[in-house]
Amino acid sequence: MPKRTVGLRGKFLLVFLATSAALGLVVANNMILTGRFLSAIGSTYAQNARLYDFLHALEAADYNYQAYLRSKSDVSLESYYRSANVLRQSLNLFNKEILDNPTALLERDITRLSESYLEATERAIAGRRARDIEAQREALSLSNKACAYIRRYVEELDQIWFEGNYNYYTETSEKIAFMRTLSAFLSLLVFSVNALFFIAFIRFTTKPLLLLSKNSDEVSRGNYDIPPLDIDTGDEISLLAKTFDKMLEGIRENMSQIEKNNHLEKYLQEARYSSLQAQVKPHFLFNCLNAAAQLAMFENADAACRFIERLADFYRGNLGITGEDAMLRGEIDLVLIYVDIMRVRFGDGFRFEKNIDPDLLDVKVPSLILQPIVENAFNHGIRDMESGGEISLSVRRENDVILICVKDNGKGFPPELLEMDFLDDRPYANGAVHIGILNVARRLALYYGRKGLFEIENGLAGAIVKIAIPNAISK
Predict the structure, then answer these.
(1) What is the bridge-based pairing of β-strands 454-458 and 463-470?
(2) With contact defined as beta carbons under 8 Å apart, do 296 and 304 qualify?
(3) Which of 431, 429, 392 is nearest to 410 (CA)?
(4) How far apart are CA 164 and CA 162, in angstroms?
(5) 100-143: per-residue pLDDT in tens?
């Protein structure tokens, strides 16, 4: 398996854990020391409490003992025995061994004196019962002396304990104060270090993310010429940045390829458009020259002259079209010239009607889209009719398009033409038949980049051609 390196974020985390552990040790040490101090205070309190209980038992035994000697009351005697038992039990709390220690010696002396005191009180009580005044007096004197020594030794022991506990309390208090100061300082230090590392960690984490977000926003705006991300954190963010750079490089390559393809397609469309546009002029010129030859044969010089003049006007208009754009006004003028030419050829054997909205004459359209349609109506619609042939041209606005409609009352379109796909690049099976409308249909699709702008159908009598000019805007 590949070796996984620890990134900067991992190092930040390790430092944070180390400083937190150090602070935890200081706090734990402070808690242990405080616990020992509280335990020592509790032990001191327990010592003083035991000493107080012993002294209280001594005072109760001596009080009841003295009361019995004065009154010889059985109640006092019973109370004495109870107090004496408590006093004997309290003696178990003191040291009875011989140690080279002032405190231990005092405890041993208190124990022995207490035992002597209890023995003297027993002899005094026995002398009182036996009415032995001398024995009673002697025992009472011994018990009083023993009780006085016990009180003095208890006070000395209490003083020694107090001084020792006070010294321990002072030392421990100083240690605790020092540890508290040290804990506070270390806590502040650890907090400051952690805060600095946390801020550095946040900056370290958010800076590359902000840079990545900025570059992503630039890419979403279509700006692909941005420098690669210089992020080397050794973690997932670095991997994400490298992946983003590879993705951006792939996008640049794809965009370059798409741009090349678009240029090729554009050039191809322009070539196809020019080719289609050039097909119309030779086709019509051949027909017109053939008609001129027929007129010359019949020696109709005036008609032939007029015919050639209108033909010159027609081709002068065509040669004036240097680009693919034209105005609807010019397209209609070409249609009218063509109709005059046809009148010279066919006489008044047909009728031409036009219904044109004058507000639409200055709309930009593709060049040579009307004359081929009208020519098709003559050649394939009404040409073989002896009389009564009709062609109409209407231009009107319908919703958001300009609708151009050319109708004739001829024989209509053949079924195979109605079913064919005009945008299919394959040549029409019948050669030049209806090449004009095929040309117009394909040029409209190329010019506007969409389908459905060209329709043909058969009416009750004759053929109907509809052209929809989208998003028509007057010049």
Answers:
(1) antiparallel
(2) yes
(3) 392
(4) 5
(5) 777 778 888 888 888 898 998 999 898 888 888 898 899 889 98
Instruction: Determine the residue type at 443.
Output: R
Secondary structure of residue 463 in the 3-state scheme: strand
Burial 448-464 (b: 16+ CB within 10 A, else e): beeeebbebeeeeebbb
Task: Please give the torsion angle defined by the CA atoms of residues 445, 408, 282 and 433, in that order, rounded to the nearest 10 degrees.
Answer: 80
Q: 96 is written with which tokens?
A: 């009875």
Q: What angle do CA 158, 164, 170 make, to 5 degrees?
A: 130
Using DSSP's 3-state secondary structure scheme, residue 475 falls into: coil
371 contacts 338 by C-beta, under 8 angstroms:
yes
**How far are the Cα atoms of 21, 74, 119, 176 from residue 186, in angstroms, in the given order?**
11, 70, 63, 15
Say which residue the tokens 């001596």 belong to: 62
pTM confidence score: 0.43
How far apart are alpha carbons 475 and 471 in whole angstroms? 12
List the domains of the chain with CATH numbers: 8-207 (1.20.1440.210), 279-470 (3.30.565.10)
Distance CA 294, CA 46 (A): 146
Q: Give the C-alpha separation, 83 to 63, whole Å.
A: 9
Reported confidence tier of residue 353, pLDDT bands at 50, 70, 90: very high
For residues 447 and 423, give the distance between their C-alpha atoms in angstroms, rounded to a whole number: 13
The residue type found at 50 is R
One-letter amino acid at 133 equals I
Q: How many angstroms separate the CA atoms of 198 and 16, rounded?
A: 8
Euclidean distance between CA atoms 309 and 333, whole angstroms: 15
Tell me if 281 sits within 8 A of 318, measured CB to CB. yes
pLDDT digits over 319-345, tens only? 555 556 788 999 999 999 989 888 877
Alpha helices in 72-132 (DSSP H): 74-90, 102-130
CA distance 116 to 142: 8
